[in-house]
Amino acid sequence: GTVIAMFVLPVFGLAMILPGMLTNFFAGGTAGIFGNAVGGRRGAIIGGIFHGFFITLLPALLVTIFNQMGFINATATDVDTVTAALLYAWIIGPLLKNF
Questions:
Q1: Given this model, what pLDDT does residue 45 score?
Q2: Quick count: other Cβ atoms within 10 Å of Cβ 26?
Q3: Count of alpha carbons within 13 Å of 31, Cβ hemisphere only?
Q4: Which of its termini does the chain have fewer beta carbons within 10 Å around, N or C?
Q5: Helix, strand, coil distribution of the chain in percent, nearest 5
């Protein structure tokens, strides 16, 4: 999934992200285990591909957010960091500007 996303995301104008091996190994392994428990081999393959795509897509979205904040070409690859930053940029930040 990460290899597919590495070549697909730049086509849409997003940054090419090279995800960390630890994130791919541990979180991808967990996605494969849960996918196997729910859908067998098919579920493991689909879970791994979706995980790989999203673990590359989310940091690519974060690059654009960080560029707007002044951190040029910076990103993070851990899902918790990316989720917190995107929630702040898309939901919490705009709400705080209203006050």
A1: 92
A2: 11
A3: 18
A4: C
A5: 80, 0, 20
What radius of gyration do the chain's Cα atoms show?
15
Domain coordinates of the chain in residue numbers? 2-97
Low-confidence ranges of the chain (pLDDT < 50): none
Q: What is the DSSP letter of 18?
A: -
What pTM was estimated for this model as a whole? 0.80
What are φ and ψ of residue 17, in 5° steps?
A: -105, 135
Hey, what are 87's tokens? 């929630």
Task: Tell me how far apart the alpha carbons of residues 47 and 43 are, in angstroms, rounded to a whole number.
Answer: 6
Pair 32, 50: CB distance under 8 Å: no
Both tokens assigned to 79: 């899902």
